[in-house]
C-alpha cells in the first residue's frame, strides 16, 4: 500500500470518529429532551435548555473538526506521492460556518423551541 493511501486512510478514520461523536451528541441531546418532556415539570424542562445549548456547542466543534479534516483529506488527495509527510495539521474551519450547517441549527433550535413550548403548556394548564 502506498504512503498516500495510508495517509488518506488515517485521515478517513479520524473523520469517521469525529462524525460518530457528533451523532452521539445528538442522541444524548434527544434523550435528555425526551426525558424532560416525559417528566413534564416546568422547572426540569426549562433547566434542560442549558444542556441543549452545550450539546449544540459541542456539535459545532465536532462539525468544524470534521470539515477541517475533510479539507485536509482533499489536500493530501491532490499531492504527489513524494510529497506525503503524514502530517495531520489542518486549517481550522470557523465555527460560525459549522453552526450554519443544516445538521446543527435546525436540530438544536427545534429542541429548544420544543422544550419552551412544552414548558409553557405545562405552566398554562
Written description of the protein model:
With 125 residues, this protein is mostly helical. 78% of the residues lie in helices and 0% in strands. The model has no long low-confidence stretch (mean pLDDT 89).
Task: Give the terminus-to-terminus CA distance.
Answer: 66 Å
In terms of quaternary structure, the protein is single chain
Which shape, going by the Cα principal axes? elongated
* Content-based structural category: mainly alpha
Order of helices and strands: HHHHH
Average pLDDT taken over every residue: 89
Overall helicity: over 70%
Low-confidence stretches: none
Strand content: under 5%
How many individual β-strands?
A: 0
For the report, how would you describe the main beta sheet? none
Characteristic key phrases:
125 residues; mainly alpha
Give the helices and strands, then pairings.
Blueprint (H helix, E strand, L loop, with lengths): L2 H37 L2 H6 L1 H30 L16 H5 L5 H20 L1
Question: What is the gist of this entry?
Answer:
With 125 residues, this protein is an all-alpha fold. The chain is built from 5 helices and no strands.
Amino acid at each position: 500500500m502506498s504512503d498516500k493511501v495510508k495517509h488518506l486512510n488515517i485521515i478517513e478514520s479520524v473523520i469517521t470518529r469525529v462524525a460518530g461523536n457528533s451523532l452521539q451528541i445528538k442522541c444524548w441531546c434527544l434523550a435528555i429532551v425526551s426525558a424532560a418532556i416525559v417528566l413534564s415539570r416546568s422547572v426540569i424542562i426549562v433547566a434542560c435548555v442549558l444542556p441543549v445549548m452545550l450539546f449544540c456547542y459541542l456539535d459545532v466543534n465536532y462539525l468544524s473538526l470534521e470539515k477541517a479534516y475533510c479539507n485536509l483529506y482533499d489536500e493530501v488527495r491532490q499531492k504527489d506521492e513524494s510529497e506525503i509527510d503524514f502530517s495531520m495539521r489542518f486549517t481550522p474551519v470557523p465555527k460560525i460556518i459549522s453552526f450554519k450547517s443544516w445538521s446543527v441549527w435546525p436540530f438544536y433550535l427545534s429542541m429548544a423551541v420544543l422544550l419552551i413550548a412544552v414548558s409553557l403548556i405545562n405552566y398554562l394548564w
